[in-house]
């Protein structure tokens, strides 16, 4: 009974064990099953996926294009509705708070309580609801989407529960008036929506919607929809989503994003028109800057300085955000307390922030009573707020009165607003609620831009333009530039420029915006990772970091420096015991198949699950029964135990007996699915107490003996699926190129070969370690001694190389010509790990176009 | 003297041959050399490239990022200057024509002659100049850039001559006032500029600018600059250039394009300000549509219809353009005539077009006197030209009077303009001058949009809006939408939407523009290839066509259906004779290296040039001399001929004798460079008259004998660079996936393997054939008999597969366990071509992210 259990067999084994032995065996076997079931959850995925792919690819592709349109239209429609309803609900929440606050204006204390309680309740509800329903809904969602689009399966991030938690949690969080954003979560919501829509349509119209690869494609369109319908910015949405989620982008999938985002933005704005909020479709934050002379050429230095300052500000924001999270984690007492009382932290943060923004208190100096939307509309106003340093001519529009304080200059208000909002946003976005940071940062950027603009307006009251006509400076233009630059710096994107044009409905400031955004990006990228990459690092998501712009040492690191030389492999002549051992030691999902230990010629790779099913086939119940029956026939004198055992097994062998036949047919048709379970349990158990386990579950010594025999047989690869062309690199491939290839092809691991011979393996883990820990890589630690000799032997074939090559060549000649095993062939695996390395830079000289260049 | 010649040796051989034999041998040898020199031109490239890459990669990468900025700034600056100066020159040319035309208004005939002669002269000059200096400068340049960025080396397209020809030719062509565009050629000019700048900086600052791979990266930034500074549209420029030139795009190179294009657009507009043409930096074709209510929701159907119509129009334009070219090619008499008199065709076309646009003639009905710029400004006017069908309220701005005709309705003028310009543009862009089609198409689109807009204005004189306020329809908005839609349909891009926003400086019509562009693209893409792909086909450029949206049969074709099964390969035990034979037969640039003919295990690939240098080393002059000297010592009785020969050779063997040592040191240090030449000549000659050649140039029978001996020796791979990991596919890889991988990695060819064994090869040629000739592929012709059985054996391992696998497995067991050659191993290459095919769909299941999905 060497670990072959379906549920029925398991039940049987338990009963059997209970009858034969004491309770100890029983307890052990159950605990084993539950652990193996856990492992199974992990292992089932890749296997199941492959089956879906191979069998459904064909069908789905044929009818694909037509359904893409329908799918994208549906996605756009649903997301526009969600966005609109959510906006409506948020506006309602905020209105309710204002109404409460306004209604209680007789009593300051009551007013304060109302002002503070409302957001605390909402945020606490949001945090609690998310925590209970789906903790995956917390945070922005862009880092997770980036990881998912990279090819990593984070299944629980795309469930219906997460969708509900995210939408309701986000609505409450934004309704509270905290400095939180909608964009990031909306990317996640749109992806969730796409995933669910796929499932729904699969249930409705059959399997063509089940293809996993297609879903990935749709997810990247969904990200565009998320941004698109959040800001009614289709073009910016597509570009932003490409920039934040992709490394390489297939231009032929471009239209999908554009189509879906446009449709979504259109419906989103049409809903506003139908609801009589707007007269027609216009931009979300429409500006009215003058068209004929938007800015003077001599203002450009000011815009450039604004951009550079925003670059530093963006880097600071990312740093601050990470610092807060890391501080809380490192402080063990805080950490423990927060882990026990999860709702205390968001409630506390909300309390502090809402206290500080309480309009009759501190809030009066920082326009505390305004919502984000109102603040932004005010900041993008085309009128100048201050002249000569005082706010006399301040022509108040509906919301702008909040910016005016009888005693305090408008500059002080702005500075106060910027400073307070800066740290508030950085803190607020660490709360465990669904929230993004884009909009708060955008707002801070706009305020900073407005500050610079107002300063310019004071310095040059009649504008800078020298010739006759007077064109006063437009501080609103600076606000637009600042908003784009700061959000670009925080997210490391250039497309925020396009988003502001679409948000404001004016493109007249295109050049200042572009200049500021590029400068901000240059500064921020050289100082800090983007906010999303920072979160990826904090959350330790399995993502390949980008190669920074300034890290030149990466070009000197080669695959041979970082690869794992001790590769787990199977040869064509391996025995089942070898397979078992390899499975027990290694944790890689696939294992290399080489010709023989001598030659090490890489033939392909085999998935772990395939090997597990091979092993379970070899030691399977039918073969086991065959053996037992043969044994029974040969040997008439057997104990009562064996007899009972056999008779029980005999009933199961009966083809009409449902549990067994059902089980077995399953494990052949679904190939690995059920087979995995057994072997996993074997593996698991053997790891705990190999011998004890054998004794416990193998009452018959002859079975154990038989198993030993079986394990010594060479593996029969007939029923095993082999990937005959796994991705290969050579030792001299640079880290930079390896990174490119990995991210281009979404690889998980690659084998390192030298003229066909396997010499190492590189997985994402090594690559990530090498990129992140580049300091150690440049030192002597990681580099092998040979690395330092590299540069000298670049051009000409040096002597040692020739000798090594000669040996290799001789060996091969010896092998293929006289065809007898000379003593030289015995040590062939030792030589020429480095033989051809000087020529290996040849790899991919034909990859000219897309792969950037070592 | 078996084919080892430098120039000096060649001269020597000629003299020798002349002395020894009659003139026939001499003539033969010269003709051989010239042909081999031709071949050398072709062969030199890949080899030289590799050397540059490998040796310079490291140096260049270290100091790379900083210099990128400098390079991009310089590129932007130069291109902005070129663009501005060219615009100035074009405006001057057009002004001159107007002045001539205006000055002669007393005599209609003279006026006509002036109107017609001027463009004919300019176009003829442009065509002649381009023809003489650099015929590569003809046409748009985007198709060529697309091909170059795909990895194909079209060297002559990036020379200084081409630059001069393109700039001057383009200026003249555009100055003539023909319906030609600036955008496409400007992409080419910018790329030329980038290539030349690289060379210049390489000459100035050393080799770091010589890296070919880096240049490709810079070229894609240059394409963005080209569009960016042509239209002062940085964002649209980047997106447009990505869409028309790339298949896969690396997001991390994004900033390069944005930075350079922004800088270039900025300088371009700053020059206009400094020249006092403009007061400040604004859009090129600034519009002044009202901001508060740009369009009504109910106008959207009209915009959608406009988009669909533009889609059909775009497809028609591409078709018409191709039809004209193909007609001229097929009509042999026309073709012959045109080939002889190359300038007649452009002159004729110009004559016809300018006659038809002669303002007092037909031109009066189609605003013939306006330049493209003036027409576009007029068409984008925010006023309505017609109310109630007559042009009474037509409020004339400077240029618009051309649109008004006393007798003829403005609608007639517009229709006439559209129809005439449509075919004129299609014809004009086939002229052999540097010219693009974007701007003419853009203009036609604007006119068509204006037509629809004016019609709408007539139909709804008070606007559609139902509620109180009257918002009249803005026909200029329709013109913007039409321009974006038609140019998007012709080029198959979505980013024309962004270009129009940047051109007009207004983004208020974003939703109509996006909807129309997407619809136009959907229609046009389903009917015709893009204009650039059409030109690629016409010019038969080596480009991989895109997989169309509707061609589902591609998903059913697999690599095994299209691969070449008869692969040329070399084994580790090959003799030099085998290498020679392979080189003579095959034309592939690289050859597969397998372990042995039996095993066929792929070890790597070797470049043709490497093999050629191997061969030339083996039969090299020094070894030849060694042999001769040894032979001379052994054998004292030799003829006079031999003596003369030897003494001559003796002088060359002297290490101080410059020609020979020079030659030989060259051929070792530069490895293949000079070596190639010899072997090519051998190959070439042998193809003509192998035996005769040997007789002619090998006066000594013992030399021939020696050569035969040398050829029979097994190859020494010591001095040969081997690419140890060429790209591999498996038989079951679908055409769709193959296409993706080829375009993603810019591959030239890929080997098809089955568990390490080489079974075929696929090159771009097969792939292209399969994609273009998909009709035959779905039939029985191309598909092998096995193909039809495929779908049945998808899920389970069928019997025949198992048997085959079993054989394979047995063979390997037999090989690796007892290690002796059994008879079974003799026929191993025959089996299992198909053995593992059912599992080969495993390939790249981990490529989830970027590769779209079979």
TrEMBL record, chains A, B:
Residues 823-835 have a biased composition (Polar residues). The chain crosses the membrane at residues 69-91, 112-134, 154-174, 186-206, 218-242, 254-274, 300-322, 343-362, 408-429, 441-460. One of its GO terms (cellular component) is chloride channel complex. One of its GO terms (molecular function) is voltage-gated chloride channel activity. It is a multi-pass membrane protein. It holds the Pfam family Voltage_CLC. It is found in: Membrane. Keywords: CBS domain, Chloride, Chloride channel, Ion channel, Ion transport, Membrane, Repeat, Transmembrane, Transmembrane helix, Transport. Residues 812-835 are annotated as: Disordered. PANTHER family: CHLORIDE CHANNEL PROTEIN 2. This is Chloride channel protein. The gene is LOC112227014.
């Amino acid at each position: 009974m060497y670990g072959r259990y379906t549920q029925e067999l398991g039940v049987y084994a338990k009963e059997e064990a209970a009858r034969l032995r004491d309770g100890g065996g029983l307890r052990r076997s159950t605990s084993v099953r539950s652990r193996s079931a856990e492992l199974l959850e992990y292992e089932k995925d890749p296997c199941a996926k492959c089956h879906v792919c191979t069998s459904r690819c064909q069908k789905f592709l044929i009818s694909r294009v037509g359904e893409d349109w329908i799918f994208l239209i549906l996605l756009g429609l649903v997301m526009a509705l969600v966005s609109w309803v959510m906006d409506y609900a948020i506006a309602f929440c905020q209105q309710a708070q204002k109404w409460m606050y306004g209604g209680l204006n007789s009593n300051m204390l009551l007013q304060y309580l109302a002002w503070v309680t409302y957001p605390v309740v909402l945020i606490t509800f949001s945090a609690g609801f998310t925590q209970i329903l789906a903790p995956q809904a917390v945070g922005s969602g862009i880092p997770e989407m980036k990881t998912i689009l990279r090819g990593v399966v984070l299944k629980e991030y795309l469930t219906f529960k997460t969708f509900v938690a995210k939408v309701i949690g986000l609505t409450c969080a934004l309704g509270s008036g905290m400095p939180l954003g909608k964009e990031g979560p909306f990317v996640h919501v749109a992806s969730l929506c796409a995933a669910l829509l796929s499932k729904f349509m699969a249930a409705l119209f059959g399997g063509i919607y089940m293809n996993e690869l297609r879903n990935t494609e749709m997810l990247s369109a969904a990200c565009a929809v998320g941004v698109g319908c959040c800001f009614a910015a289709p073009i910016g949405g597509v570009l932003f989503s490409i920039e934040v989620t992709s490394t390489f982008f297939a231009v032929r999938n471009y239209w999908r994003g554009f189509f879906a985002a446009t449709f979504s933005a259109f419906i989103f704005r049409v809903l506003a028109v139908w609801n009589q909020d707007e007269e027609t479709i216009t931009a979300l934050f429409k500006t009215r800057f003058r068209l004929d002379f938007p800015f003077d050429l001599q203002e450009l230095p000011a815009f450039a300085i604004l951009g550079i300052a925003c670059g530093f500000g963006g880097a600071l924001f990312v740093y601050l955000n990470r610092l807060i999270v890391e501080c809380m984690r490192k402080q063990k007492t805080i950490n423990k307390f927060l882990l026990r009382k999860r709702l205390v932290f968001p409630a506390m943060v909300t309390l502090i922030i809402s206290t500080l923004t309480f309009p009759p208190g501190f809030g009066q100096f920082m326009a505390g009573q305004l919502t984000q939307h109102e603040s932004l509309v005010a900041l993008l106003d085309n009128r100048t707020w201050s002249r000569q340093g005082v706010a006399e001519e301040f022509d108040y529009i509906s919301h702008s009165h909040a910016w005016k304080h009888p005693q305090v200059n408008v500059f002080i208000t702005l500075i106060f607003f910027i400073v307070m909002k800066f740290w508030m946003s950085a803190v607020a976005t660490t709360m465990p609620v669904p929230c993004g940071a884009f909009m708060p940062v955008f707002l801070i950027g706009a305020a900073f831009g407005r500050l610079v603009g107002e300063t310019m307006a004071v310095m040059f009251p009649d504008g800078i333009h020298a010739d006759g006509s007077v064109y006063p400076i437009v501080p609103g233009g600076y606000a637009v530039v600042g908003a784009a630059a700061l959000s670009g710096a925080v997210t490391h994107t250039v497309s925020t420029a396009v988003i502001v044009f679409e948000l404001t409905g004016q493109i007249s400031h295109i050049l200042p915006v572009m200049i500021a955004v590029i400068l901000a990006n240059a500064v921020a990228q050289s100082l800090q990772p983007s906010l999303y990459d920072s979160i990826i690092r904090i959350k330790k998501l399995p993502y390949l970091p980008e190669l920074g712009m300034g890290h030149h040492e990466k070009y000197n690191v080669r695959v041979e420096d970082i690869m794992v030389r001790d590769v787990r492999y199977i040869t064509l002549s391996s025995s089942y015991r070898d397979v078992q051992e390899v499975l027990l030691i290694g944790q890689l999902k696939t294992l290399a198949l080489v010709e023989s230990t001598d030659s090490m010629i890489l033939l392909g790779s085999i998935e772990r699950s395939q090997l597990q099913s091979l092993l379970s086939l070899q030691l399977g119940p039918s073969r086991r029964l065959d053996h037992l029956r043969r044994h029974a026939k040969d040997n008439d004198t057997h104990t009562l135990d064996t007899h009972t055992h056999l008779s029980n097994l005999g009933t199961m062998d009966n083809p009409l007996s449902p549990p067994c036949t059902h089980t077995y047919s399953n494990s052949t048709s679904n190939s690995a699915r059920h087979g995995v379970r057994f072997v996993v349990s074997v593996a698991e158990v053997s790891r705990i107490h190999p011998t004890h386990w054998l004794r416990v579950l193998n009452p018959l010594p002859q079975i154990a003996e038989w198993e030993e025999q079986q394990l010594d047989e060479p593996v029969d690869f007939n029923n095993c699926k082999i990937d005959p062309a796994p991705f290969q690199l050579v030792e001299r491939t640079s880290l930079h190129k390896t990174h490119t290839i990995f991210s281009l092809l979404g690889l998980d691991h690659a084998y390192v070969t030298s003229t066909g011979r396997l010499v190492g393996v590189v997985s994402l883990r090594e690559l990530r370690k090498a990129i992140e820990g580049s300091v150690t890589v440049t030192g002597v630690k990681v580099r092998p001694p040979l690395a330092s000799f590299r540069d000298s032997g670049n051009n000409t074939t040096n002597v040692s190389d020739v000798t090594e090559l000669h040996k290799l060549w001789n060996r091969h000649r010896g092998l293929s010509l006289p065809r007898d095993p000379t003593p030289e062939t015995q040590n062939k695996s030792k030589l020429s790990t480095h033989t051809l390395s000087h020529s290996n830079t040849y790899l991919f000289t034909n990859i000219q176009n897309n792969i950037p260049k070592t």
